[in-house]
Records
---
Amino acid sequence: MPRPFLPVEGPAPVTSVGEFIHEEPVKSPFMQPLFPAIGKNHMKSSFMKPFFHAIILMMSLQTTSIAYAAELVATDPIRLQPESKANKIVDRQDAQVPDRVHLGNGLLGTRIRRNAIDWLPVQAAVNANGFLDRHATYDLTGEYYGKWLEASTLSWANTREPRLRDAIDKSVEKLLKYQSEDGYFGPFPPAKRWSPPWDVWSHKYILIGLSTYYRYTGNREALEAAKKTADLLCRDFSESRRSLAIGHCGGMSSYSLLEPMVWMYRLTGDERYRSLCDYIVRSWEQPRNLQIVSGLLEKKGVKGLKAYEYLSCVNGMLEWYRITGDPNLLQAALNAWEDIVTKRLYITGSSSQKEIFGGDHFLPNTGDVCETCVTVTWLQFNTHLLRLTNEARFAQQLERTCYNHLCGAQRPDGKHWGYYVNLEGGSKYGSGPFPCCIGSGPRGMAMIPTFAVATDADGVVMNFYDAGNATLNLRDGSEVRLTIDGKFGAEPKSSVTVELPQSKDFAIKLRIPYWCEEPSVRVNKEPISFPKNLTTDAYLPIKRMWKSGDVVTIECPLSPRIILGEYGNRGRLAVAYGPLVLATDAKLNGDGQPRQVLRPAEETLRSFTVEPAPEPFLDWPGAQVFRIAVRGGEARLVPFSVAGCGGQFYQVWPLYEGGIPENGNLFATAVESYSRTGRINKSLFQNGSVWTNDGKKADEDWFALALDNPVTINCVTFIHGKSEPPGGWFDTSAGKPKVQVKNEKGGPWITIGEFADYSDTTAETCNNKKLQQMGSPFVLTLDQPQSIFAVRVIGKPSCGNKPEQNYVTCSGLRAALLPTNSTASPR
Ligand SMILES: [Zn+2]
């Protein structure tokens, strides 16, 4: 017997929903602190009772004539409002209304539910009563509000959480009161309109929110309001009136209006909207303008461009491609995708440094990388390309992004989102100066059900295997119900059970994950052979006469994979397991010594074991952590999606023994020590300084690195820390700071030179700028290479204006073997 729909099963006790509506929370199955497996036992579970009442109520409202579907269609499927204009280019893979695909208690399902239950309703209070009330002064209100409205509408469609719907309805009602007679929503008087950098951009997001809300709910007032805004934009912007090349990044922010203007054109068929879209794309190509299409066709790439705004324009360009059918637009987008994937994409599935697409293969792990807005527009970009081409390579990228960087940006309890989400660091979650990312992350999460399982001309497409269920309409209108079981990411086997009103001939296409080397697939008991031309970039189609009860089993053996770092990550390695990129995490490895030095690749693989995740890493029922041998013992790795979740240090790319990093530092994996433990911020290997200020006075201070095996060096670099009024520099009144080494293990320190260019100072004074700012390098180059086990820099500490103490700071120490006659110092 088919099971009732179980849209969600809730892991976390929810308080926030009740909080924001200030009412007695209604019991909901979403709110139970249980992790029931998807299975028939659910039916007996007492917590399901309220849900069954809902099903019975909904069933009584059903008018469906499909007898078998009485239980299946328990949630009264949403019918999107029709569009007036058909696309010239029909999607090869169909987007799903989120109420057709319900992910359950897998990793993504859990996160999607927390987004819908623990974040979006709470943000309703912030939005409706906070952001909207700041409307009069804040020009980014529309951005944040529009994203929230879209995310909440999709999440409501997926969960049917009544309080979320209530919050949406009330907030839209409030929003519409802010609209001027002529359609304007912003805070500026007519004479100032559109000049502030984010005014058009904010209206774009209001259009996105209102048009989505209308399509899902049929609310005509929302549509009329959106039309008034679109009319206003059409009146104000054109070649003969005002240029859209305003706002941020050469107008990229304003030009990204293209996406919802295409939506508005499709919805209404109003030719003025089409004209505005046409104007936007034409305008890009004017001399000295953005040249988005021609630049991409000439393969100029995206280096140096503002990533979020640029991808927003490119996403609009793909919507416009659907209308016009101009093949150049698709080709331009594919070129952008290729450029990003090959040169600018992190292994966790995001991009950008300080919101910009960086140089070729420049992927630093720290320093404000991977803005969540970029993660989500990248996700949208891949969904567009997946639908347009039906090629699995885009679904592969979606898996990479969703399971790693998107979940990594969301706090595991769903109650916060990150702005920059570095691959190494200590604090991932925080809105930064703007609310852009905490609005974007929830959108990305809410979009997953639209593509996790889909349909195409041949039948069903399985993009993701997160546990859950789906009721899909094939293109001939017939219905297929799928139940996906397993713990994708934690267990190798996933199964898909098919239910149909009657047997039917169609294909189920399985995405073979890119990391899966030896997949095996069965239908019922029968093995399916793989066509010879199937690569990891393809779907495995299984075309047959399907009948109810057929079970497809896909098995992707899970084993650790080593990714050896290149370019800036040379000398480092990352470990992945199935779809998950892993990271070291200080919480599991002793907060005092967060930095782990891994064993070489083969040893890391040999020592790898899996165990259930402890709190706080238990973010879903199948969550696991991983134990590996490291220098000095063993360490545990956690999925990037939970790494650093309590603010502790984490690292995707640790150094490994024998690895030589890009800067050539042969002591990169050394054990570090100092004369005194002072205000130690980080370590000699991380961004930050080591301080020796213990409040006392010492005759000398030193910073040392030691290895087990000797290395040959001819150059030592000392990176100065930050000097302050009470000290931090070396006092050179009795001599410059010296470099000492050990030529034997455990042997004596031998002086090999000094930093002659270190400025003259006293214990009390340091007038040199180079010593006052952090990061200044001092280099000692040796005439002859030396084989050494250890190196240290030693000198007299300074006291500045506090004579009762003294100290020195250091933010890095390196030793390298440079080619002879090279004067370059290791960076
Ligand atoms: Zn952002």
---
Amino acid sequence: MTVFERDEKVGGLLRFGIPDFKLGMDIIDRKIDLMAAAGVQFEVNAHVGVNVNAKQLRQDFDVVLLTGGSTVPRDLPIPGRELNGVHFAMEFLAQNNRRANNMVLKTEEIHANGKHVVVIGGGDTGSDCVGTSNRHGATSITQVEIMPIPPEKRPVNQPWPSYPMIMKTSTSHEEGCDRHWNILTKEFIGDDEGNVKALRIADIQWDEPAPGERPGFTEVAGSERIIPCDLAFLAMGFLHPEPTGVLAQLDIALDDRGNVATQGFATNQKGVFAAGDMRTGQSLVVRCINEGRECARDIDAYLMGNTNLEAKANSLMLSNA
Ligand SMILES: Cc1cc2nc3c(=O)[nH]c(=O)nc-3n(C[C@H](O)[C@H](O)[C@H](O)COP(=O)(O)OP(=O)(O)OC[C@H]3O[C@@H](n4cnc5c(N)ncnc54)[C@H](O)[C@@H]3O)c2cc1C
């Protein structure tokens, strides 16, 4: 089994996304070492679809499994988006994990020290930007979110076991930041040298949606204001995997959200499977571990005609109960 990884180290978002202060690289390295000891080969700096031909991989291997993640971030096409200092969250977070582990930064340095930081997006990635900016010594950190403030407790329309959309306050938030909800970001304002200096925002009020329709919002009259901002991080989620490169080279069918379409874990191409965020959209580590296990079972069945690998459908715990 060979893993092809375009970065110089494997680990994906665990290494180059989730901040080092939440997950140390020593833990990732230990897991990778265990896999290597079990016989897995790792080829790094191997960008499939760019410097590794994906079609050739299909010739060389019985099965190709696509686990490239969901990497295209949602953008914010407002005036001033092009100004210096406006970055996707991942540009900042990935670089900081490199810095924290004495690796080559590879991209223009982004540092929050002494800056007024605005994080746009109230989710977990935004929270990671808050924690990282605090560690850099930012002058101020403001996190804005377009959606309303979530409830503190599980709403009745989201019963267990569904994942409730409730208010989350992470340790990064506790370390210090201003959080605002129902905020429309209208314009980045720059100086004469093309650097972002401020952000024009306004309060919004969400309308009650008509049945079957998406809710709209109206701007609260007189609420428009300008806040200082010399570093902005766009943390508004991820859309889908990159459609170019390996997916285009292998002519992989996508679903209506732009993720890899699968039957089980099998793609439209024989012997090509997909798992993880590339298949489901941006998710969680535990879900991806589960995807890996379930997919391994499907691949084993494809190669061998049957499988005894443990998975949900063949749980040793359940069968022993
Ligand atoms: C900032 C951030 C913080 C997060 N924090 C948490 C958290 O605290 N807890 C949690 O459970 N989840 C968290 N998540 C989500 C979690 O990290 C992901 O759901 C999970 O890592 C996805 O795993 P994956 O293997 O599918 O993809 P990824 O982790 O994205 O790995 C994909 C790998 O494929 C490589 N790759 C892509 N294309 C190619 C190619 N063509 N050739 C070769 N290699 C390629 C990439 O370089 C990468 O190494 C976070 C996500 C982000 C963005």
